[in-house]
Amino acid sequence: MTALPLCTVTKPMFIPFIVAGDPTPDITVELAFALQEAGADMLELGVPYSDPLADGPIIQRAAARALRGQMTLQKAVELVPEMRKKGVKIPIIIFTYYNPVLQLGEESFFTLAQQNGVDGVLIPDLPFEESGPIRRLGEKTGIPLISLVAPTSKKRIKTIASHAQGFLYCVSSLGVTGVRDTLPETLNDFLTEVKRHSRVPVVVGFGISTSEQVKMLKDYCDGVVIGSALVQKIEQLNEQLQTPANKEEALAEFQRYARSLVAPLKHACSSL
Q1: From 22, 30, 41, 55, active-site residue
Q2: Strands (DSSP E) along the chain, which ranges?
Q3: pLDDT tens across 3-35, in order?
Q4: Residues with Cβ < 8 Å from 191, sequence gap 6 or more?
Q5: Which of 8, 22, 27, 161 has a CB 3.0–4.6 Å from the CB of 66, allowing a cystine?
Q6: What is the pLDDT of residues 207-239, one digit of tens each?
Q7: Can you state the angle between helices 247-261 and 25-37, rounded to 10 degrees?
Q8: 55 included as an active-site residue
């Protein structure tokens, strides 16, 4: 298990999100390695779910593809050691909705996660006020439960931040995930307020899809999560990724695309 950053972050982190099993489990492993080579500091591995409340159309389609391939929560967690065999060394966070965890069993889920070297868990539809039992299971198994905070959290920001483990995930915009042309004008103020209360790194996600947006945010947070833009690229490369003769070039193209999105972060790192 790779330790999550629990104290000072010396460079802005790139945290990509991909869906387990999209387009296939084996290719998910190769995409994870490509993202590490593109400079990822951590990986969010999304578990496909039939009713993804926080996800927009791009990730919904990816989840549908993965579910057609019989991907499950257990199979997604079991991809983590396969990624380690491939050479993925960065921390891996399981991003799952609560219902699959409930169906598997909360204790069974954390035992499975621990056995497979999961580094953290993020459950977007689990309210902070109802997260106590899950948080304690995470503490028992050494797997942090990542907290989310949104612009609507307001008076709850300080409380949520005081219990944050691993890092604190700031939701940039109201609504679901997706590629956005613009981000809220108040986002920087929101991030500044969250950082004022947080004792762990503060990262921001939802809607970040261009290098220009990354450049705008890099001085206000400790990292950015990019999901829909990368999942959309996987969708565009779907056929090539599953064609043996074209797979390596498709992976290389995906890696170049990921690296281009976060170029401002790596420039910031080189100037420190």
Answers
A1: 55
A2: 13-19, 43-46, 92-95, 120-122, 145-149, 168-171, 202-205, 223-226
A3: 554 445 557 899 999 999 999 999 999 999 999
A4: 170, 202, 204, 217, 220, 221
A5: 22
A6: 788 888 888 888 888 999 999 999 999 999 999
A7: 40
A8: yes
